[in-house]
Amino acid sequence: MIAQLLILTNIVGLLLIAPIIDGIERKIKARLQCRRGPPILQTWYDLLKLFRRPSIVTEEYSLPYIISPYIVFANIVFALALLPSITRVSLSFYGDIIVLTYLIASSSIFIAIGSISSGSVFATIGANREISIATLSKLLIALVLASFIILKGSLILEKLFPIIPPYTISAILAIVLFAILAYIESYKLPFDIPEAEPEII
User: Fold this and answer.
1) Are 30 and 77 part of one and the same domain?
2) Are residues 77 and 6 located together in one domain of the fold?
């Protein structure tokens, strides 16, 4: 029971922290541009505002458009349960790193399916770009995780991280590539093309 509560703490804690990290990033970006910028909790304010808005659907939408967000959110929750983060306790089992890889990859697929099913031209453009980026980035993520598996000789996530010294060249390259991929997966400039903002503007 205690382990389940600790895992739940990880999930809730990370879900609460993620928008705050985005707010910190927006604040830093604004300061670098000599602007005051939004408050750190602005992302949370935006999320709460969006949750209060009614759902808007087109006449051409289909069922995947409705269920895809719930599937993606379930994937995220399951992935967070696998990560030994805040409490260092996780839903650990042999091969959980492979399951985590599938969860990460399938989330992008369901996002694209949901976008295409919306019946919107702009959403379809974003879905095509999502798949284009995901095809490359998810493959590289799998290769990076495979290198960690080889270095540690384990398929259990808890035993893969952290990568402790002495660092080999392959470990350093894998860590650097993983950091780059993490930035790409955040869809920040210049990797924000799935949002199709130029076309919308």
Assistant:
1) no
2) no
**pTM score:** 0.79
Answer yes or no: do 95 and 6 share one domain. no
Whether residues 133 and 196 fall in one domain: yes
Q: What are phi and psi of 70, to 5 degrees?
A: -70, -35
Are 47 and 30 members of one domain?
Answer: yes
In this predicted model, what pLDDT tens digit does every residue of 140-191 receive, in sequence order? 888 888 888 887 778 888 777 666 555 677 778 888 888 888 877 777 777 6
DSSP string over the chain: -HHHHHHHHHHHHHHHHHHHHHHHHHHHHHHHTT-----TTHHHHHHHHHHHSPP---TT--HHHHHHHHHHHHHHHHHHHHS--SSS-----TTHHHHHHHHHHHHHHHHHHHHHTTT-HHHHHHHHHHHHHHHHHHHHHHHHHHHHHHHHT-S-HHHH-S-PSSPPHHHHHHHHHHHHHHHHHTT-TTS-GGG-HHHH-
Amino acid at site 47: L
CA contacts within 13 A on the Cβ side of 30: 13
Examine the domain organization and report whether 34 and 87 are in the same domain: no
What domain range is 36 assigned to?
Answer: 1-54
Determine what percent of the chain is predicted with pLDDT higher than 70: 90
Claim to verify: residue 110 and residue 182 sit in the same structural domain: yes
